[in-house]
Amino acid sequence: MSVGLGPVTFVLDIIELSSTTAECSETALLDCLARHGLPVDYLRHHWVGLGTDGASVMTGCKYGLSARLKANFPQLVSWHCFNHRLEV
């Protein structure tokens, strides 16, 4: 009986933001992913999940990062990170 590998987690990059708005975060994230060979066309077909902390700029249902990304990536599932929920 063989056992498959579980999820793999790693830090891709650290991004310095010029502002803490959802728009700035979205632009910086998409630019970073493109620099690492993940252009928007690829992400539209393969990006399925986004975990964030509970800050409203990340999770806001109208203007947060998750809402902005879901407008361009409708299949994207966003959730409040389990480890950050432990602190609530």
Walk me through the structure.
By secondary structure, the protein is mainly alpha-helical. Helices cover 43% and strands 9% of the residues. It has one domain.
Derived from helix and strand composition plus strand pairing, the structural class reads mainly alpha
| Average pLDDT level | 86
Low-confidence stretches: none
Give the DSSP E fraction (strand runs of 2 or more residues). 5-15%
The radius of gyration over CA amounts to 14 Å
H/E element order: HHEHHEH
The percent of residues in helical segments reads: 40-55%
Largest sheet: 2 strands, parallel
Total number of beta strands: 2
Terminal CA distance: 41 Å
What count of structural domains?
1
Q: Order of strands across the biggest sheet?
A: 1-2
Number of helices: 5
The global form is globular
